[in-house]
Amino acid sequence: MSVVVYIPDIRLLSTNRHHLKWATDDQDHTYVSDEILWNKKLLTEALPLAFEKAIDTSISMAVTNGNKSPLVDGEHNLNETRNEETVAKKLDCTKLTLDEFMRKKLAVPEFDMSTKENKNVMIFFLNNIERLTALIDTVSEMRFLKDTAGRRVKPSQIFDPFDEFLCRLFYGEHVFPAAKDALLPHRAAFIKLGMKGVGNILPKNIYAVAKTIDSVSQIDDRMYDKAKALQEYIEDNPSILRQTLGTCHALYTAQQ
After folding, report:
1. CB atoms < 10 A from the CB of 202, how many?
2. Per-residue burial over 225-236, b = 16 or more CB atoms within 10 Å of its CB, e = otherwise
3. Residue 55: pLDDT band by 50, 70, 90 thresholds?
């Protein structure tokens, strides 16, 4: 079972990009499966300076006390399971499975994507969503995205910015994620998390589009194409007009 290390009340060691690679990339891992590699440099960078001496002492004890001669390379990597256990015990660490680690890391009301640590954790989740399907419902309810208006939103509150028709219809509307380019590699994952497509268009969306078009004093090429997309959608979905009228009436009543 692959594990990560959590040090209570200090920080998660496995949250920078080097540590996150262990679960999928055997070329640059910190520890994986039964062969556990410790990288002293990464450990000391992840902990406050006060813990560096403790780490040095723990590694020294692990090397000295091991029944077998552990492999120690230029970066002080250890691949003795017993040595790893000794270091973990000295540092008061707890082993977590990948699922436990991700649940602990994602179990926060506001997941701030502006921090490098959180961004790396979320990217790791998106890249491995097929292995972490049990967390999809949790992540889908997290407001970790920003839309083009700068609001924190859930994946289910944005439309697919890579759908050409949606881009035409919703030109000028704040229904897309702000970081479009960063989202592209994870488009399939965001669809699993509830990102909306053409089939999720609601009467209130059509009403907003119509209001935007009506409010423009001069129609440029992009706005003309937006109006054309609206016409195409109505022609393909004529019942939307009746539904939109109901939405308009409800909005009017609420304003009275």
Report:
1. 13
2. ebbebbeebeee
3. very low
**pLDDT above 50: residue 246:** yes
User: Would you say residue 253 has pLDDT above 70?
Assistant: no
My answer on whether 93 and 113 are in the same domain is: no
The rounded distance, in Å, linking the Cα atoms of 240 and 247 is: 10
Residue 104 is predicted with a pLDDT of 76
Token readout for 108 is 């926060």
Report if residue 17 sits inside a domain.
yes
pTM of the predicted model over 0.85: no
Asked if residue 141 and residue 72 are part of one domain, the reply reads: no
Q: d(Cα 98, Cα 176) in Å, to the nearest integer?
A: 31
Strand residues in 71-162 grouped as ranges (E): 94-97, 145-146, 152-153
Tokens coding 155:
């994946």
- Residue 102 inside a domain? The answer is no
- Distance (Å, rounded) from C-alpha 159 to C-alpha 167? 9
